[in-house]
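question for whoever is on the cluster today: can someone run the full assembly for these? seven chains, 1771 residues total. i dont have access anymore since they changed the login thing
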Amino acid sequence: MQGQAQQQAYDRGITIFSPDGRLYQVEYAREAVKRGTASIGIRTPEGVVLAADKRSRSPLMEPTSVEKIHKADDHIGIASAGHVADARQLIDFARRQAQINQLRYGEPIGIETLTKEITDHIQQYTQVGGARPFGVALLIAGVESGTPRLYETDPSGTPYEWKAVSIGANRGDLQEYLEESYTDELSLDEGVELALKAIASTNDDELAPEGVDVAKVPVEEPVFEELSNDHVESHLAELDLLPSEDEEGDEAA
Amino acid sequence: MQGQAQQQAYDRGITIFSPDGRLYQVEYAREAVKRGTASIGIRTPEGVVLAADKRSRSPLMEPTSVEKIHKADDHIGIASAGHVADARQLIDFARRQAQINQLRYGEPIGIETLTKEITDHIQQYTQVGGARPFGVALLIAGVESGTPRLYETDPSGTPYEWKAVSIGANRGDLQEYLEESYTDELSLDEGVELALKAIASTNDDELAPEGVDVAKVPVEEPVFEELSNDHVESHLAELDLLPSEDEEGDEAA
Amino acid sequence: MQGQAQQQAYDRGITIFSPDGRLYQVEYAREAVKRGTASIGIRTPEGVVLAADKRSRSPLMEPTSVEKIHKADDHIGIASAGHVADARQLIDFARRQAQINQLRYGEPIGIETLTKEITDHIQQYTQVGGARPFGVALLIAGVESGTPRLYETDPSGTPYEWKAVSIGANRGDLQEYLEESYTDELSLDEGVELALKAIASTNDDELAPEGVDVAKVPVEEPVFEELSNDHVESHLAELDLLPSEDEEGDEAA
Amino acid sequence: MQGQAQQQAYDRGITIFSPDGRLYQVEYAREAVKRGTASIGIRTPEGVVLAADKRSRSPLMEPTSVEKIHKADDHIGIASAGHVADARQLIDFARRQAQINQLRYGEPIGIETLTKEITDHIQQYTQVGGARPFGVALLIAGVESGTPRLYETDPSGTPYEWKAVSIGANRGDLQEYLEESYTDELSLDEGVELALKAIASTNDDELAPEGVDVAKVPVEEPVFEELSNDHVESHLAELDLLPSEDEEGDEAA
Amino acid sequence: MQGQAQQQAYDRGITIFSPDGRLYQVEYAREAVKRGTASIGIRTPEGVVLAADKRSRSPLMEPTSVEKIHKADDHIGIASAGHVADARQLIDFARRQAQINQLRYGEPIGIETLTKEITDHIQQYTQVGGARPFGVALLIAGVESGTPRLYETDPSGTPYEWKAVSIGANRGDLQEYLEESYTDELSLDEGVELALKAIASTNDDELAPEGVDVAKVPVEEPVFEELSNDHVESHLAELDLLPSEDEEGDEAA
Amino acid sequence: MQGQAQQQAYDRGITIFSPDGRLYQVEYAREAVKRGTASIGIRTPEGVVLAADKRSRSPLMEPTSVEKIHKADDHIGIASAGHVADARQLIDFARRQAQINQLRYGEPIGIETLTKEITDHIQQYTQVGGARPFGVALLIAGVESGTPRLYETDPSGTPYEWKAVSIGANRGDLQEYLEESYTDELSLDEGVELALKAIASTNDDELAPEGVDVAKVPVEEPVFEELSNDHVESHLAELDLLPSEDEEGDEAA
Amino acid sequence: MQGQAQQQAYDRGITIFSPDGRLYQVEYAREAVKRGTASIGIRTPEGVVLAADKRSRSPLMEPTSVEKIHKADDHIGIASAGHVADARQLIDFARRQAQINQLRYGEPIGIETLTKEITDHIQQYTQVGGARPFGVALLIAGVESGTPRLYETDPSGTPYEWKAVSIGANRGDLQEYLEESYTDELSLDEGVELALKAIASTNDDELAPEGVDVAKVPVEEPVFEELSNDHVESHLAELDLLPSEDEEGDEAA
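^ ran it for u. tokens below:
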């Protein structure tokens, strides 16, 4: 284990290796991811689900302005956790890659292909000097040739494929929750509910409809779709996760 | 909590992550925003209001020269708080983007679109080396397809949409004031008055007409309009916020 | 209040924010301005006046070579205070901008337009790495469509419009003097005399004609004009500010 | 032997020599290689074998997403150990070089040629400033004109040719194991089994089929081929290396 | 007054402002000027004189090789003090500017124009990073439209016009000497003699003809002309400044 | 002699001079050369010989992969010592220069010409910033117009011509051995044997055929030729330098 | 006199001024010159002589490979002292300048012109960042329009013209020797002999023919010519400077 003084030497200036082979700037960027509220992805045989905790910091802020789930292409959604402005850069990058693929090959970009183009882009910021790494993790979810796919990217530029995964705050607890509750035979609706329950689990088992974004890409009709507030509310009601009247009153503006 | 010495290590040279995932240069740029006098935005069903505290530092300075609210396009106004010279750069950038949009697509730029182009621009200055972040926050207010919109940009390059918001000095107090007083059914005039009352609330409930800029973009005729000094004075008189004779005499040149 | 050691951390290398949101290099550039002798601008209904304290350091130096007031365009004069070589760069920049405006639009450049082009240029040197800020403040004075205008630029790149203002050494005292003595109904000659009295006020109420530059742009015929030594001397004589015989003898070569 | 303080001096900023002629950044990159799980290459007269330890960190992660063996060309496979995102950059580089060779010369790229192009690329990152070295080692395995070849690249950009070699964690133990067990007359299947036994040797002599990637390029038909999970499982069963029921149950999702 | 440690902080790397608004690198470059032997310029109604102390360091060195006065154009001479190699760069720059002016406008360059082009060039090296300031001061002397002009440039890039001035070693004493002895009615020959007496005054009132360069640009025929050794010797003899026999014998080779 | 702290100041960042006029980065690169096993060159009237100690570090490593002697052109061989990846860069550079010479002038490149092009290339890396010096020395051996030539390059970029020379580990002992044993009348075979005896002299007078590379360029037919293992073995047998049975058994795989 | 710590501050990174106006990197480069063996230039009415001490460090090194005198053009020779690889760069630069002059103006380059082009080139490396100064001094000797010329360049980029001069080790003693022995009426042969005696004077009055390079450019036929070993030997014999038999035997190989 290294001391504080030693550590400082490796995180000034450009991203370089520490004596034990670590890239501190990349590890600190992972801390920036943990500072963001959680996003969750669930892959089911019927499609993929993305859900994001976006509890507004103020009743006067438009909940829709805290974007955490974005459409990258007709068949692909991306959820983020971490430094918001960095996430927006990567999502713009993803959209351009999807458009280029469509123009060049006349077909929608593959989920894995898109993930790898994004992670290559991220990696460059960890090796070449003059810029810092991206302080954000992404979940890239979509349907490709009838198969649902769910990928994670981290600040080092490594892609991972998951059945179910969380990024951002409370990853340890949420991942444990998912491992206990996930099965391979979930319906798409059950996937949505697992995601909502997981997020609520770190929030006293309560969740306001405005405090969460949910989206899905079904296998049957592989089109990215964000769930309406009413739709989310009915899920939450069914799961008995809606906040008590008092508390919701506090948050309403 | 980190000590002073540790902190110093992360704010020299380019913008990099600290061990807990923060970007100190961006946080210090937020301090530059707090050093500026407050600007306030209010969204009502009838349009958006911008108001800016610009108490002149000298009776010989032209009040109009302390610009804090600018027209970005016919239908969009921008108020700023923080480093004045940085604000001017971003407003020039906004105007160019509005012109390009008009030339390219033959239609006025959307409020959200413009906000995102500005925040992308701001983000670049927080990731790529060789420059410091912008030390300024903006309120971007306008009417788009009949809908009033109000956005905030911060030094990290994150956009937020608000019903009512303040930037700059006393944000804590002002935001609390707005949360208590804002309702969704304000008329545009009531929006102007709420903004004036909020600014006066941090100034012993007094406000000279020359000490505040007010502008609006009404839904009915979505054209950016700065209120005349007389107009502001009649509002202030109605609200009983005009300074007592003695004090005003001091400020007159 | 911060200690010395802390402060040092923020003024090495490129211009970056300190933890309290300040740009030390810009503030130090302001100190360079204070090291320069004072320049004063006075706006009257009949035109604008610039005056600059240029007491020569040696009887063998040509007083005209210590240029502190320059013609930027036919209708615009610029006075400076601070780092002389930096001032010359900005004045060259101003002249080029005036010429470009004339070529491009077939009309003289506006005073406000010119000021903003200069302050945008200055701001770049405070944000982008690889150069230091300009250590100079300018007074930009002219007549535009029959209206006299008087602007100040500072090392941060912020423009201010004034009725009467001083830059450089003794700003506190001089600004106080101006606030006490300025009225909106000065004639142009009274403006010249106010400027001379102000400069003399920080110099034992004496001023040699060679020790001051005076220029004006009258509204009636908006052409930049430097006052001859004789003209200045008659003003000084009338104001009883000429040095006593003994002292003047010392300075003659 | 040098002390800690001395060492720090040579690993800040760009890659430079230490007084004893070492490149610390390259040596630290070698530590990054050791932090990765092991990959093994075995050359037999019948072809080359690659095997990689990829024990998944979570039951919800797709084992296939932890890619450690990749096809570089029809006749070439590459296994990696170390920083995953860096490995992906080098493998993309390898694929482009293989394609360029095919386009330019109309024939598949040689194994040695490809290795040298990769190591030249790696070396640049150790000599020219503005970037860090690659934190990854590769095993490049293929068949060239009927001859099996097996190369290693390290972070300094040096190529080595091997009969049998391991990279990544436990290299000392694994290399010793290979030296004891390797003979020049292995069949391809025996090569696969030697690789599996070696990896299991550092893991309590147990290995789940999902926890290992195996690929081969046979001399007879020189085409890169990844072994199916079933195929791997039958090998492991034959070698009595399958985990006991209990343990496997834990890892199943 | 600042301490040593404080000062060090501002003179590493690029030229930046110190907390009291000074540019240490520029001030240190002025010290480089003081390390050079003196050059003197005298302006008389009949023309301008340049004289430079160039006492050879070795009897084997060609006195002509220690160039301190150069012809910049037919009508302009330049004397230097300080870092010799830097002086040569600026003199080459001056010659190119003179040629360009001749080519572009068909007339000889003005003395003031040339001075300003040189000082603009010098200023760039004090503001933009990646280079140090010029460690040299110049005296630019010539006749322009029948008027003799004499300018000084310093390492900050500031131009000064003088009647009589010295740069380099002993500036304080020499300038005092000039102030006491200079009158506006000197003949050109008296100007030469004043310059020689001034230089000799800091050297025990002795001066070898080989130890001084003298040049002039007369108003009557404005052509730069270096005085021959014989001519200088006759001046020195007349002024009784020639070294005693013994001493001259020592210097002969 | 300087202390450790002083020394550190001169080896950070780019290659600069120390107060005693040394280039530490170049001297440290020489240490990298000493860390490599020895290479030896012998010039005889019948041709030039290169020999390189390449004792394999592992019985599983292909001896041929530790390349220390390379063909640069038909008539030129190059042996190296030091940082292997750097050596490969320089040898590629040498081959390109040889090809360019052939294309441009239609004749083989001269040995001295090639050496100077390589040393010019090396020197650039010691003077211009942004890269470290090459950590390798080369022996460049060939026959040019019937004359055998043998050159050394070092990390400073200085070329030396030799009758017999060693680079890398044990240079002191080996050079002494060569000085004692070398005569101007060696046959080419005697040159080979001198090289082998020298290398063996630092290795208990034993040498396995796989542990040494030998090559020659004969005057009679000036073509670079690497000696086969059998050929080397017969030389070693004749010189009674073959390892005893036991030891060789250890190294065989 | 400054302490060690103070000094360190000015020799890191690019070449900047110290508080007393010195350029430490240039002064350290002068130390690199002193580390080289001496070169001597003598100008006589009959031509110029260059001589260089090149005592070989090893009997196996080809004396001719320690080049210290080079032909720059038919009529110009250059001797060097200091960092050998840097000298080679400057000599290549000189040759290119000579060729360009011939091509452009159809005549041989002047000695002074060539010297100034070289010193301008050297100066750039002392002012612009990103490279270190050249650690070498040159003697440039030739005949121009029937006149012999002898110039020295130093690491600051200053040119000096000499009658007789030494660079490199023992400059103090050698220069003193030259000052005592040089007269303006030397024949070319006497010039050669003075140079040999001077070099021998710092070497126990002995000099092996292989240990010295001598070249001359006679006025009568201004062609650079290196003296043969025999020619040098006969000079040395005549001067009784040949080493005693024993010593020479030691150096023979």
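summary bc i know u wont read the tokens: The longest helix of chain E spans residues 84-105. Residues 72 and 172 of chain E are 27 Å apart (CA to CA).
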